[in-house]
Design brief:
The complex is a heterodimer. In chain A, 33% of the residues lie in helices and 24% in strands. Chain A is α/β, with parallel strands linked by helices. Classes of the chains: A alpha/beta, B mainly alpha.
Chain lengths: 329, 312
């Protein structure tokens, strides 16, 4: 069994708002093994991004706070760590790419300056060595004319180029784990493929583990080894990409897969899961998906099912599957 | 330099066609990449009124710097026989009630007004930015405290507050400058606070934190430089306000003290002669108007260029 780079255990990240406490991440368990690409899928507002921000402890506070659970990075719990220790980890062991390449670079500095700054911050390299390193990184992420681009400003680059720069910056210290929060959502389809290809190459060549957050099942199918499906702050199904696509167990996962348009089928309308993501609150009862579920049963409204292992690497949180069904009845 | 390079490229483009352009880069020295500031300057140069403002300002700065060389007389020099003489070859702007040369006094007055304008604004910017950044970046009780102080300061009409401060400190040019600086702190403070608040949610700030940057470093390398543009715009317009405020305090006798040739002071000293010797009032008034106009034009131009909301 591979040693996990990241193990999230029963993570609770809550937001304390005027309308009460919102459990955005409500007991999430996740494992990212070394050299693996884990996809985290779900609708907007299901807690994917908050989970990833929690790993770096960048959840805006106030109002957000990690109220419980453990985040083990190579066995070391990050939750109790202070700001100073976290700074040594951010960028260095774990780094992150964001959704909007247009806004994730500072408009006032050249891309080189921004990469150099990162490298010098953690490695204390000389300016010259850092610059050489920056150029090398830009070349690595497939930027043509890296020697020139290094002195250009973000507004002179296209969205795809900027995302490459972001990736160059985040891998410049060779992190163990790369968290990519919807890295391709804001890009053109052709550029999307290039960026995904780049991330996969980094994963294969450097062995960087990747946690890929997305709502795009196409991206998941193409990129990931394993998938965790999240709904309303909880993981509802987890398994290998093969299992998830070929025999999804949870009705939510089934709905998600059905919603993907298919080229070889003619349908009048695209399928969509009826209803909306529920408003999260502390006193929710039962399965979070029950109000939208086509197979809803009485038990679903009353109590929340556990995440139960169905097969070797496939678990599901649903009363339709698993032994706990009999226990409850 | 830059233009010559650009010109040569267009010539190449015309003569060699587009296909060759792709291979030219190796032998053409790469045009120096211009940052956001370079772009702003280029856009600013196209703005005629803003350039006019800049010219007026440069003119007055030169006048202020070269006053001792340009002035035909000393600003304290009195010729009591030549009191309230109209403009003539000897006294271009006439003389005042003590027979002092108005032209000389206007020249020296530029020094005082610009000095008060620049330094009071620099003072308010430094303190205001510091407080605004603290309030915006750290939030919570610091923000509460600072914002409430700003609110209190803004509750007073600024000139009244300045008068109160000068009354406490004693009337002098230095105290007037100090009072103007204090009165204007909340303007910059609020501006910077709002800017920092919006910057804080920018993705590159989160990205910087995700890369392991310290708060203090984020402040210095990301937040401050990005807050600079509204400060520059407001500062330029603020100089105009400060000059008027200084003139007002001078007019009230709370600013520059005799014999300093402060424009506002000159206005108030001569107002009893407004009918008999209008030049004693017209020229200081015109000078105030022109400098203020210069700064306002330039400030508006800068806003057009620097404020992202003004860009299409």
């Amino acid at each position: 069994m591979k040693q996990p780079v990241l193990r999230i255990e029963d993570l609770h990240t809550h937001f304390f708002t005027d309308r009460g406490e919102v459990p955005a991440v409500d007991g999430v368990d996740l494992v990212v093994n070394s050299g693996e690409v884990l996809g985290v899928v779900g609708e907007s507002g299901c807690g994917k991004s908050v989970t990833s921000l929690s790993v770096l402890k960048l959840v805006p506070s106030p109002p957000g706070r990690i109220v419980g659970g453990r985040i083990l990075l190579k066995g070391k719990d990050l939750v109790p760590l202070g700001e100073k220790e976290m700074r040594g980890i951010r960028g260095n062991l774990v780094s992150m790419i964001f959704q909007e390449p247009m806004t994730s670079l500072n408009p006032l500095f050249t891309v080189g300056q921004q990469i150099i700054e990162t490298v010098r911050l953690h490695r204390g390299m000389s300016r010259k060595a850092a610059r050489a390193h920056a150029v090398e990184m830009l070349q690595k992420v497939g930027i043509p004319r890296a020697e020139e681009i290094v002195d250009e400003y973000p507004h002179q680059l296209s969205g795809g180029m900027r995302q490459r720069v972001m990736i160059a910056m985040s891998i410049s210290l060779n992190p163990e784990l790369l968290i990519a929060d919807e890295p391709t959502t804001a890009l053109d389809v052709t550029i999307q493929a290039q960026i995904l290809d780049l991330i996969r190459r980094l994963n294969e060549e450097q062995g960087t583990a990747v946690m890929l957050i997305t709502h795009d099942l196409g991206v998941v199918a193409e990129m990931c080894h394993r998938v965790a499906v999240m709904y309303a702050g909880k993981v509802v199904e987890e398994g290998s990409v093969y299992d998830i696509f070929n025999h999804p167990l949870h009705p939510y996962t089934q709905g998600l897969i059905q919603s993907v348009p298919r080229m070889n089928e003619h349908r009048e309308r695209l399928y969509s899961i009826p209803g909306n993501v529920p408003v999260l609150s502390k006193d929710m009862q039962g399965c979070r998906f029950a109000p939208r579920c086509p197979h809803v049963m009485e038990v679903c409204m009353r109590s929340l099912p556990e995440l139960i292992r169905q097969e070797e690497h496939h678990s599901c949180r649903c009363w339709l599957h698993g032994s706990s069904q009999e226990d409850a009845v | 330099m830059r233009q010559s390079i650009r010109a040569s490229i267009t010539i190449r483009g015309e003569t060699m066609g587009q296909a060759t352009l792709k291979i030219t880069p190796p032998n053409v020295p790469a045009e120096k990449v211009s940052g956001p500031w370079g772009d702003a300057w280029r856009a600013f140069r196209k703005n005629k009124t803003a350039m006019l403002g800049l010219c007026i300002i440069v003119f007055f700065i030169l006048v202020a710097l070269l006053a001792p060389l340009l002035a035909p007389y000393g600003y304290k020099e009195q010729e009591l026989v030549n009191r309230l003489k109209p403009p003539s070859g000897d006294h271009w702007f006439g003389t005042d009630d003590l027979g002092r040369d108005m032209f000389t006094r206007i020249l020296y007055g530029a020094r005082i007004s610009l000095w008060v304008g620049f330094f009071s604004v620099i003072g308010s910017i430094i303190v205001g930015t510091l407080l605004g950044v603290l309030a915006g970046f750290y939030g919570r009780w610091i923000d509460m405290l600072i914002s409430r102080v700003f609110d209190i300061l803004l509750a007073f009409p600024s000139i009244l507050l300045a008068i109160a401060i000068v009354a406490i400190l004693g009337p002098s040019l230095r105290n007037a400058l100090l009072a103007i600086a204090i009165v204007n702190i909340p303007t910059y403070g609020r501006l910077v606070r709002a800017r920092v608040l919006s910057l804080k949610s920018e993705e590159y700030i989160t990205a910087a934190r995700a890369i392991g940057m310290k708060n203090s470093r984020i402040l210095l390398t990301h937040i401050l430089p990005n807050s600079l543009t509204p400060i520059i715009v407001q500062g330029t317009l603020g100089i105009a306000t400060a000059i008027i405020e200084a003139a007002a305090l001078g007019f009230l006798g709370l600013g520059a003290q005799p014999p300093d040739p402060e424009w506002g002071k000159m206005l108030s000293d001569s107002r009893q002669f407004i009918q008999k010797a209008p030049w004693t009032v017209i020229f200081p008034g015109l000078s105030i108007m022109l400098t203020v106009l210069g700064f306002n034009l330039m400030g508006d131009g800068l806003r057009d260029v620097l404020d992202p909301r003004m860009k299409n």
